[in-house]
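worker-03 picked up job from queue 'complexes'. Input manifest follows; two sequence lines, order preserved.
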Amino acid sequence: MLFNSLHFLLFLPIVVLLYYTLPTKFRWVLIFFASCYFYMAFVPKYILILFAIIILDYSAGILIEKIKGKKFKLLTLILSLICNVGLLAFFKYFNFININLEWLADILGVHFKTQLLEIILPIGLSFHTFQSMSYTIEVYRGNQKAEKHLGYFANYVLFFPQMVAGPIEKYATLGQELKKKVELVYENFSSGFRLILFGLFIKMAIADNVAPIVNQVYENPSSFNSLEIFIAILLFSIQIYADFYGYSTIAIGAAKLMGINLIDNFKTPYLTRSVNEFWKGWHISLTSWFREYLFIPLGGSRVGYARWIINIMIIFLVSGLWHGANWTFVIWGGLHGIVYLTERGFNKLFKFKLNENFSLLNLVLGIKNFLVVSFIWVFFRAESFEKVKMIFQGLIHNTNIPEYKLHYNYSLMFAITLIATDVVLKKNRVDSYLEKKSTFVRWAIYSVLLFGLLAMSGIENLPFIYFQF
Amino acid sequence: MVKKIGIKIVLLVIVVTLLNCIYQFTLLKRDIGQMAPCAYQCLKLPKNVDYVYFGESSNFTTDRNDSTTLSISELIGYYSNKKIIAIDTPAVHAGIYKYWIKQLNNAKPKGIIVTMNLRSFGEDWINSNLETNLNRGVRILKSEPILWNRFLLSLKNFEDEITNAARDSVIQKQWRTKQLHFPYEFKYKTVKQWDNAIAMGLYEPQGQPWDSKRIELTAHLVKNYAFNIDEENPRVKDFDEIARWGLKNNVKVYFNLLAENVQLADSLVGENLVFLMKNNRDFLVKRYVNLGAVVVDNLEKVDHKSFLEKNWPTEHYDYKGRINIAKIISNKLN
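worker-03 finished. Artifact:
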């Protein structure tokens, strides 16, 4: 079920109403069935994959806790991780691995044809496998007690507001949130409403208005002149941010209506001056996951310089591959890694330190960083290297092509609105920002958001980009 | 807390009502122009227009070698010496026309000419999936509050959200179960039975060389024309609305019952199919004359040679066919 559908806008109030009608001890049952229903609106049979993950990691958690002996605990953990990653590999990377094996074999002079799978990737598989794996790792590390109640554990993996595109939560936080006694509190409603309204606005009014421009240019770059391609590259940065930030905000808002707190996934990522700062504000829950479960086990920063460089590159390359089974994603991750390392090296070499106050230098660095990130996004958006080449070639050579006359509609206005909103909100979340305002100002802002949402949203109704991961 | 929430809901309703008015006076026309250009044409109709012609692809020619490229509506204007404005787009039908026509309320044409395509009453077209853009345009014109309509548009709530497979299954079910009525005994009771007989070679064609192309075309003719129109047909309800709109607004309604390739149907499928086509024609003529409309019966007025496509049932005519239809309609206008 999509958040931006009439189906969800009817489903959510019904679930919230039933949630507060039921006694606390039965609420997990409602969340379980509501989440199953939510997920089954996509491809019903894929719920079985989720059940498999739940059973697997629930059992692994209990086994790890019960088994005596470190070696056996580790073995159980490894087995559960292999199963999770194996599931992900099968559905997401099977064709990618096979195509590359074929290509490699071709180079070595061995010719064979592999069978490619024609299956739809289960929606959000990368998200719930990563979330579930974090639980077993935490149990293994002794930071988390194994959950004995299968229903609560199932809800941790299935919780509908965040099951398909995050934020990726730890059991220590979401597990506890799902168990706690929630009273009917007005503040949860007002906060949830504000978040959902704002989330829908940035998804439907901003991302969906920008998307058709980006799609047209990426579909056929040779028809557009350099300026139009340049605008489309920048607009994709806005689209993906509005799309994913919108989704996360709706997810947090939907959970908040039930008194459940989810972690923030974005903090003004485009108001940053370096790739390092960008990743502190972009998809925060995934960055944290990679730091805790990959970077630190690899030795983190407490290793030699060369090893540290390798560790950083591994994180970025794996992060790229996590996003999609295509070399373009790997290169996207790799480029972020290279820019990150270059910036760190530069700062170290020249002992360069930035202050936090507004200055011309910060502004220039902010624009530079936005441009760098935008150009790297080309690898993320283009479906092949051929397309990447066409985009960059078009950017340089298509200066003489007459203007295609793209219908920008509200896209440019809304793109600027998004950046302006970030400047206004700074690091605050929209619900707490609005809370501090007078009733008049608050309702004036609601009115603007409502008008944008109801009267100016894009009519293409595109699914959330991150659903494919 | 209930009081607090109640106040907020009331406030929200007031705000949304105000936003609805703001939308109506600011962006609505722009949206109609973008999403439903034909309806926008209706809104912006010049005052001196005599007749408005609502048509689909039958109105214009798709043949570059045609002697004249004038459309039926232009030819009607020429022969009747009336100012005619055509509002047309491919694959459109009465289910869409009725929303466009309601936008005419500001203008006062003497009459409207609306194409009545026999195939549009059949299951295949009723359940067609080629109408996404048309449905999008219609959503903004529906009678619910306009801001709600606009929001539903952005939620993609303008088409039946069923898959092509589900659509196909609806059509197949209708063909399998809906009984065909003849005033005499006919051995195939449903379209499916008839179609199966054609596919299995049991069906006796009218002395034609019987090859796979002909078998395919015969089956298409049966699927497109073998049905009985009745009051429950959704397209009939659409035409009813148009006829009643004409009566209510004192605008003469002319239904242009489009010419079909009856000769081809007769030669390939035979008299049973032609009977159904004529029977349906009679039903429509009788019904809409009773509802105060003029039904211009062109069903058999175009010769087989004038149909541009001979391997598929369409209503695309060469210049002779278009001129013929235009002359008949202009005679009715004068």
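worker-03 released lock.
Chain A touches chain B at residues 4-6, 9, 184, 186, 189-190, 204, 208, 443, 446-447, 450-451, 453-459, 461 (CB under 8 Å).
Chain A has two domains: 6-183, 187-273+354-468.
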